[in-house]
Design goal:
Helix content: 10-25%
Number of helices: 3
CATH architecture of the largest domain: 3-Layer(aba) Sandwich
Strand content: 35-45%
Order of helices and strands: EEEEEEHEEEEEHEEHEEE
Shape: globular
């Protein structure tokens, strides 16, 4: 996925009220929209290099959106709204080898009254639900982790994917690692043990788990490489 406009480099001052970040652009300080409601653990050090996407929409109060943070020498894509677009591009262009040759790719499809999954794939009569989780946490130089905070919603998605399998769907969960240079992925058991246990339960039930790293630059982000999942 290519950015619609050139990103502008700045320095992070602070993130607050979940949706706001103050950034220094040259001698000016601007407030940018933060399109990530998660904890963004490990990314918010003062002075971190950041990249903003400018917008000219008169209906929007903030004229910049936060897209990338550079932390410990790695670029990290923090816009959670980009995750599904990146995966859809990957599905459409055969970048996810386990999910190639789909007859149709439908976004945001309801499984039941309470839950919808990010994609429904159909191929020769087989229907497959795909859920996407955006990954921005890394606590060592080569291993990405999820979640970065306890997630009841994430547990609900895992349990519902199990229900989908019982109704003859295939089920995949893709951990989209928007972090440069990662080699491995694992569940952050110490952050959310309940999610880790639900992950093991879902894996045993037949949910397929994939972790794919992105190639990230100030011009584009796209799926690049499959990562090994460490189960400890």
């Amino acid at each position: 996925m290519e950015f619609t406009k050139s990103l502008i480099k700045g320095k992070l001052i602070k993130r607050y009220k979940r949706f706001f970040t103050d950034v220094k652009l040259g001698k000016e300080i601007v407030t940018a929209h933060c399109p990530n409601t998660g904890s963004m653990k490990g990314l918010l050090d003062v002075g971190n290099e950041v990249y903003l996407l400018p917008n000219n929409d008169p209906k929007r109060k903030l004229k910049y959106g936060l897209e990338i943070i550079k932390s410990r020498k790695n670029l990290v894509g923090v816009n959670t709204h980009m995750a599904n677009r990146i995966v859809e591009h990957g599905l459409s262009n055969g970048l996810i080898k386990e999910l190639k040759n789909n007859g149709s790719i439908k976004p945001e499809v309801f499984f039941n009254e309470e839950t919808r999954f990010d994609f429904l794939l159909e191929n020769k009569g087989q229907k497959t639900f795909v859920e996407v989780k955006n990954v921005t946490l890394f606590r060592n130089k080569d291993t990405a982790e999820f979640p970065d905070a306890p997630t009841t919603r994430g547990i609900k998605h895992l349990l519902t994917l199990i229900n989908a399998i019982k109704k003859s769907y295939k089920a995949y969960l893709i951990f989209l690692v928007q972090i440069q240079n990662m080699k491995y992925f694992k569940i952050a058991k110490d952050i959310d043990e309940e999610y880790y246990n639900a992950y093991l339960k879902a894996k045993k039930a037949g949910v397929n788990f994939l972790a794919y790293r992105c190639d990230i630059s100030s011009k584009k982000i796209f799926i690049d490489k499959k990562l090994k999942i460490l189960d400890e």
